[in-house]
């Protein structure tokens, strides 16, 4: 891997994220313009392997919205997938592509057959499968159900589609624990433990008192660079003395205003107060009390029964859950640590930039880092206790016989190393841990999905008609899937499998208008007949516009829309492949009429 070539993204997601991308294999079912743009945006950053499945040949429509196809390819009637793979691989020599000249249905059936009943898949196993409308809805459901229920390694499935000036991205995946959410630097939690410092930190802070005359006389230059955390700590001690309450901790805005006043009132010895005073006053905020305020996502994760020692026994193979039992064992260790330390979590190790001397900053970093290492050791010990007491590893490490111990000592050491690395990772990212679940699944029948979605709530949450039109576009796109299952083709198309769209003929105009009326009937039965909203006239008008627009566009993919959708889909693919950052958990709809994305949030 070239560090120079990928310098920018190495800074963005690190060496581990880049390696995950380089080792991934993405299978794309359908060489649509959106799918090609998506692949382009993954190949350039360094996607290792990809397979493009499509049985069609280069046609006139492809020339109109795909810059990777040339006129000579059309004249020679070349297979579309072969042409695209060749051109895409030229973007990055580190990416390897395979063209599969067969229909998406044939590939899907072959994959399901070859991975059923415990049989081995021939070829490189896919890390992610991306499907397009080239795979009919019925076959999409079958593939989704297979990936969801079969005892396979976890393979996420993504559906991506562009339809005129609108589009949709939907992900099916088992639950996953996002460890590396990677918030912006200014949003990272600085858990500095100033109100209840651990012994080593307390000793350092006591030795760096802005009221200390010895410190001022021996190092007047250094005194001017006392860190702001020392100012706040000693101001708090003064407040506690004034209140005659050694346990006082600021909790309200008034308390922090009082603390800010105490910082400014400290008897500084120099003519000019230390540089850290202004910084300390700026940081007198609620966020200082972070150890006592666990995030909602972290509390929800730790309330899971599996994080309390009730993780599922697993003696090998791939767990049905997307989160392996060994991870739940470490989360159990974190839960136990918090319970035994009066609700204070293990220290994450993050220390923000502090305006002070290099020596003092290094000392603080060392103190905080040692605290994190100590806490990780405790959590790891709890996790190993839980693993050994359960059947997570099939009872391998509970045997008392000398022979078993001798045979398994190497394997146990490897497990301890894995638990140690996992513990460190979870503790370092403890403030951004998030258990994500994805819905609705792609194996749900289109009619059932249309019935399930809370369109009344979506419409009620909108502030104007333009936002309501976005909701109606989502309903129309779901209704179009129902239409396809009923008639075997996408509304507005003569043939749903070849993706061709014809304009200009009178018969074609009658076709999409007729299909639009049928789509209105399908969607209207769900939205209008069962809606309790008072604005039914407005809803019907917007619904008719959305349905007719979807039918008029067919599966047409204007390049600008395909480019936007491809970029968004590539971003979500990279999140899924790297297990970094939080992917979308609900359908993502693009409304090109307003140039915005909308997520169909669940209640």
Automatic annotation (TrEMBL):
Residue ranges the record marks as coiled coil: none
Record flagged with keyword Membrane: no
Entry superkingdom: Eukaryota
One of the record's GO molecular function terms: NEDD8 activating enzyme activity
Pfam families the record matches: ThiF (PF00899)
Protein family according to the UniProt entry: Belongs to the ubiquitin-activating E1 family. ULA1 subfamily.
Name this polypeptide is given: NEDD8-activating enzyme E1 regulatory subunit
């Amino acid at each position: 891997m070239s560090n120079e070539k990928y310098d920018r993204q190495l800074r963005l997601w690190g060496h581990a994220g880049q390696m995950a991308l380089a080792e991934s294999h993405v299978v794309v079912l359908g060489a649509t313009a959106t799918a090609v743009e998506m692949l382009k945006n993954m190949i350039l950053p360094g996607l290792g392997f990809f397979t493009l499945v499509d049985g069609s040949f280069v046609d006139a429509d492809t020339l109109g919205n795909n810059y990777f196809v040339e006129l000579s390819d059309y004249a020679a009637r070349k297979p579309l997938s072969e042409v695209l793979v060749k051109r895409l691989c030229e973007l990055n020599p580190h990416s390897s592509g395979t063209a599969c000249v067969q229909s998406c249905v044939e590939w899907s059936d072959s994959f399901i057959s070859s991975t059923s009943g415990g049989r081995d898949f021939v070829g490189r196993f896919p890390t992610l499968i991306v499907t397009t409308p080239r795979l009919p809805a019925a076959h999409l459901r079958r593939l989704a159900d297979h990936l969801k229920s079969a005892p396979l390694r976890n393979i996420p499935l993504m559906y991506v589609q562009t339809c005129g000036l609108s589009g949709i991205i939907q992900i099916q995946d088992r639950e996953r624990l996002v460890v590396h959410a990677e918030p912006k630097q200014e949003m990272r939690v600085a858990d500095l433990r100033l109100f209840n410092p651990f012994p080593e930190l307390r000793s350092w802070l006591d030795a760096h008192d802005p009221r200390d005359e010895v410190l001022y006389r021996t190092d007047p230059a250094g005194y001017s660079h006392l860190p702001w955390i020392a100012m706040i700590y000693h101001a708090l001690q003064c407040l506690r003395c004034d209140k005659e309450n050694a346990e006082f901790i600021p909790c309200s805005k008034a308390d922090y205003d009082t603390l800010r006043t105490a910082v400014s009132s400290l008897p500084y010895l120099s003519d000019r107060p230390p540089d850290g005073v202004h910084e300390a006053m700026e940081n007198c905020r609620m966020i200082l009390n972070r150890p006592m305020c666990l995030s909602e996502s972290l509390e929800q994760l730790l309330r899971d029964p599996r994080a309390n020692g009730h993780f599922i026994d697993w003696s090998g193979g791939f767990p049905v859950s997307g989160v392996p039992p060994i991870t739940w064992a470490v989360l159990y260790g974190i839960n136990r640590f918090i319970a035994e330390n009066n609700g204070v979590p293990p220290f994450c190790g993050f220390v923000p930039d502090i305006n002070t001397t290099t020596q003092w900053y290094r000392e603080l970093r060392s103190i905080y880092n040692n605290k994190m290492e100590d806490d990780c050791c405790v959590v790891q010990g709890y996790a190993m206790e839980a693993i050994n007491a359960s059947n997570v590893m099939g009872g391998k490490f509970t045997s008392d016989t000398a022979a078993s111990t001798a045979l398994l000592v190497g394997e146990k050491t490897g497990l301890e190393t894995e638990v140690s690395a996992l513990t460190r990772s979870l503790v370092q990212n403890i403030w951004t841990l998030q258990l994500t679940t994805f819905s609705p699944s792609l194996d749900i029948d289109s009619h059932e999905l249309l019935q399930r979605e809370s369109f009344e709530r979506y419409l009620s949450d909108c502030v104007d008609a333009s936002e309501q039109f976005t909701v109606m576009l989502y309903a129309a796109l779901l209704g179009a899937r129902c239409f396809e299952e009923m008639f075997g083709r996408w509304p507005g198309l003569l043939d749903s499998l070849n993706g061709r769209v014809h304009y200009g003929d009178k018969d074609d105009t009658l076709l999409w208008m007729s299909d639009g009326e049928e789509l209105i009937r399908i969607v209207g039965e769900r939205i209008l007949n069962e809606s309790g909203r008072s604005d039914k006239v407005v809803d019907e008008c917007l619904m008719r516009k959305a349905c007719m627009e979807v039918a008029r566009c067919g599966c047409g993919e204007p390049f600008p829309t395909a480019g936007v959708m491809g970029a968004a889909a590539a971003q979500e693919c990279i999140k899924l492949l790297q297990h970094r950052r939080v992917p979308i958990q609900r359908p993502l709809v693009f409304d090109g009429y307003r140039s915005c994305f909308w997520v169909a949030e669940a209640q």
